[in-house]
Here is the input.
Amino acid sequence: MEKLFNNTEVAFALKNNKELRRAHFLFKMISKPTLVKIGSSLANFAIKTNLPVTGLIRATVFDHFCGGISEEDCLSVVDKMYAKGKVASVLDYSVEGKETEEQFDAALNMTLKTIKFAQERPDAIPFAVFKPTGFGRFDMFVKKGEGKEFTATEQAEWERILYRFNMACKYAFDNDVLLLIDAEHSWMQDAADEICLDMMRKYNKEKALIYNTAQFYRWDRLEWLKDLHKTAKQEGFHVGMKVVRGAYMEIERERADEKGYKSPICVDKAATDLNYNQGVRFMIDNIDTMALFAGTHNEDSAYLIMELMQEKNIAHQDKRLFFGQLYGMSDNMSFNLAKLNYNVAKYLPFGPVKEVIPYLIRRAQENTSVEGQTNRELDLITKEMKRRNM
Here is the structure.
């Protein structure tokens, strides 16, 4: 297939010269692992000690990778991306690491608000999203997945988690909004997968509305996906799935070494790429009963999906298939795909600057660990700066 992702004029049409220079500076910094490590430590220290750094963070890394501090604050970015580039948004409340019932209730309320936003702007915001640990404590998912018995207090806590999941999924169903449920660490994921399965059984009878997430750097996910599809066919519901490579590789490998069990992560990048591509191929082969949100920054995987869509005569704007990238990354893919009328949605993180710092640190660390990603971004930005004679 013709290489389409090198058109930097389309890729960066929404960025003015100042924003392009900022992107160049940020990716230059992110390309140096030592700087990322030092910067992450300093950012954490500054936030914990209440140093006045939020303005600096907001003007640099926050505004590049995030849509705003609130859902309303994101609307100018949402409207700009969709009106000028036909790229949709997924509002992602990226506040992590909460532990109290009040915080979990607040996350549910925010999810309901973003579902309502999506219902009011179905083209510009086709999906809502939440993380399982936004609705309950990490340790509860771990204990449930391990099959350990809950205390009476824990059982009541687990029931509240199930209530929040169901509230979000029912509200999405009632408003006909597609809902993504993100995946997290492997040792808590079994319990989250079981809840997602129940939500699909309940709300995906007519079409895929509730989407779980499969991280294909896990070598077991392809067989798991096939088993899920078999269950769905037997029981008469549709499977919605966001497929990604994964976000916690180093943590997963370190824990496996520490605990003495086989790593759930593929042996190398080539194995991960193969696993991912087999996963999307399986879903497209079964598109009549599955819906795919292909979260990928890998150009080869995107080309493969485009070729498979062509082979299967799947229309570019078939709502059962979306491409997804993160805001602030891979604009060459997002905007060039959208220009060809494919469905494209950017994850648009938002939240108070201090609260989003853990997300931003993870984003920087991921960029340094993904071979070639940062250099690819830098090369494209540099190419566009030269085109503009900057």
